Each structure stands twice: as structure tokens, then as C-alpha cells.
Amino acid sequence: MSSLFPKSFLWGGAIAANQVEGAYLADGKGLTTSDMQPKGIMVEPWESRTGDEFNIKDIAIDFYHRYEEDIALFGEMGFSCLRTSIAWARIFPNGDELTPNEAGLAFYDKVFDAMAKHGIKPMITLSHYEMPMGLVNQGGWGNPKTIECFERYAKVVFARYQGKVKLWLTFNEINMALHAPFTGVGLKGKPTKTEIFQAIHHQLVASARAVKLCHEMIPDAKIGNMLLGGLVYPLTCHPEDVHLALEENRHWQFFGDVQVRGTYPSYMLRYFRDHGIELVISEQDKADLKHTIDYISFSYYMSGCVSSDEEITKAQANILNMVPNPHLKASEWGWQIDPLGLRVLLNVLWDRYQLPLFIVENGLGAVDKLEADGSINDTYRINYMNDHLVQLEEAIKDGVEVWGYTSWGPIDLVSAGTAQMSKRYGFIYVDRDNEGKGTLARKPKASFNWYKEVIGSNGASLKR
Questions:
Q1: Name one GO biological process term (predicted).
Q2: Torsions phi, psi of 14, nearest 5?
Q3: Catalytic, out of 21, 361, 393, 394
């Protein structure tokens, strides 16, 4: 069967600075929120560090020193796009400096040059689940001064890399702030709903200011947002379940609504009224929010259900308040596998926004077995990705405009949720375990050649 993917479709993978780079204090880098989270984003962070504590992300997979080798492997697979992030604290170690750290800027110059050598377009996230601890200690995103610090950071990197990077994202999975406020908006302890939404507001304003800067400084670039695609279905056809699903989906869609339409939607204003949430929103903030994004990017790993039956919800819901779908199977980490849900989500986003879409995270975390001959036969990963890509193609047939697909993560990396190496996503195996033992050697898995063939055929090799 011939491929229906556009000839301009971008194929590749996605990684994040804090999950691959390591070198956590190298060349002047400051401490980040991620450096204080040795057990993952949903666990209480450390208060401080002496330097003796073990955080597997301190070395991660040592991409900081091995980026040329890894990018060459991505090039061998035929990547036309690699999504990664800049570690904010490599550029501004404390976050509030007026002068950037040249060593940090120089590192990303080398990374982007290595991508260019292999014909790979960078897609760069300005802040991916990390921010400088210096800013957290001043109130994180709860402090409006953080907006100015982020704006300064964005201005510096746009100026530095304007000739090398044409695809930008502001914040990774921006709606995760509702579930992990330390990770999402740098708030310590147990913040109130008002504190969380005020911090989110500051982040949305900062994102809009970065969009304005990008449009002014790099006119031929495109800048988008990034949503955690937390699609939920009603558990039953009871009208209360249907309405609850509408409300739950709006919790993440709200972030897209603000960034696409430039204003808060009426349903969110009602939510604030009903929950006694009063935000400080200036006239300048309202004007800033009018600077809207060029495209929507999102992650998609699973769907879930919601139920108005409180007993079911309490007994079964996960961290995203999703109840398991009785019609779906799940991964080893309990993430339900729903390829058709990707097509549904793509259509929902296209119908809602009529903006180009980009799938920037999708993949299967699994325990991979090293066979006696050294091979890794990850057919489960191949099947997962094949089925999702087939549904992506179906969405393209539906008329949805999709710019590209970057799998998470093309090389084994440290899991954000659990800080494990054993939860592997890659087409490339990295010899490191949860205790940090191993040689860090890279080895292609069976999925490596499978994905290479998918890219080389522009999707024609998929099994439909």
C-alpha cells in the first residue's frame, strides 16, 4: 500500500535535557527542579543537596558527552526531526542573571551543528520539566518576576540559534502543573488551587511573550505549545458520565484554548468562580495573551475513562484521575494502550483549533530483555507504534493537518515519572540500570531497523 503521509512529513524522536544529558553541574550549570527529584515528578523533592546524594539523572545516559554518537544513530535511522530541550539552568544557572553562561550556549551550538550534519531539523522546547532552583526559591512561577526571567532567557536563545532552529515549543506538557505543581510551575509544598492557577497564569503570559519574541526575531520560524493529551471517555453512557468527561477534557484543553485564542474561555471563568479562585490578571497580561501560537503539539500515550460513581473513581483512578477502560489492555506500568484514541484526539484538536498538529511524544515504556546473542527483540514496541501510526494515517485521511511525529524516546533514557532506566522506550538500548550501573554502551534493538524502514518508506511499510 502506498503512503498517505505528506512528502514534507517530519519523522523522528523526542528527548529532554534533564532525562538524557547528565553533567548536571558541568560548565557552570545551576541546579534545577529535576536535579531535586530523584524518584520522579510525582514524589516529594529534596529540600537541598550536598552533592553526595544519588540521582540517576546526574549522569542519565551522558548525552552531554555522547551527543555526536547518539545523533549519528538517529541520522542512521533517517530522522528528519529531533525534538529536545535546552536546560534553562545551563544558560542562566540561577535563573535571574542578566548575562548568560557562554559555556551552556556553546554546548547547544554543537548539538544543533551535529543535527545539521545529519540533515535533522531541531524542534526545541524552552522548558521541559525543569527550571532553575534559584527561581523556585524566589517563588517559582508564583512570582510574576519569573516572567521577565523567562523572557530574557527566550530572547537570548532566539538570538543565538535563530539560524539553526526554526521549530520551537515553550513549555512541555504545560497542563501537568495541575498534577505536579513543583515540576510544572516550581511551587513547593502543598499549594492551594488559587496559587497553582496564578502560577499557571504567569506561565501562560510568559509563553505568549516568548511567542511574540519568536515572531519578531525569527520571522521564518514556527512556535507552538505542548499539551499532555489526556483524552478521557465517559465510563458509561449515563449523562452524568458524559458531562464529567466533557469537564475533565476541558481541564487540559483550557491550556490550548488560551494559547490559540488569546483569552480565557468562559467555562474556565465559571470554574474559577465556583471554586473561589481569584487571579491577579493585569491589562498588560490580557494584551500579552493575544500573541498566539502557530501550531499545536502534544504527547499521547494512553486514554482513560471517568465515572460519576465516586466509589469507582476512588478505587481505580490513577494520577490523572483516569479510571481504567474495561475494553483496553495495559502496559507493564498500567498505561492503557489505545491506538484509535490517537485518531480521536487528532480529530478533536483539529476540530477545536484548525491549526497544524505535531505529535511530539508517543511510545511504549517496557522492560527489554537482552538475549544470549545480544539482540533485543522488542516486537511489543513495534506493534504498539505500528498501530498508532496507522491511526495517525487514518486521521490524515480524515483531513487533519499533521506536520510530524517524534517518538518518545528514540534512545533509552531516565523516566520522568519514576526516574527508572528499566522503563525503556528506545530503539537504541543503553547499558545502564536503575542503580546507575553499566557501561552506557549503545545497541540498536529490533525496532531500530523497523523504524528506519518506516521512515525510509514515509510510512508505506506499516502493517495496516
A1: carbohydrate catabolic process
A2: -130, 135
A3: 361
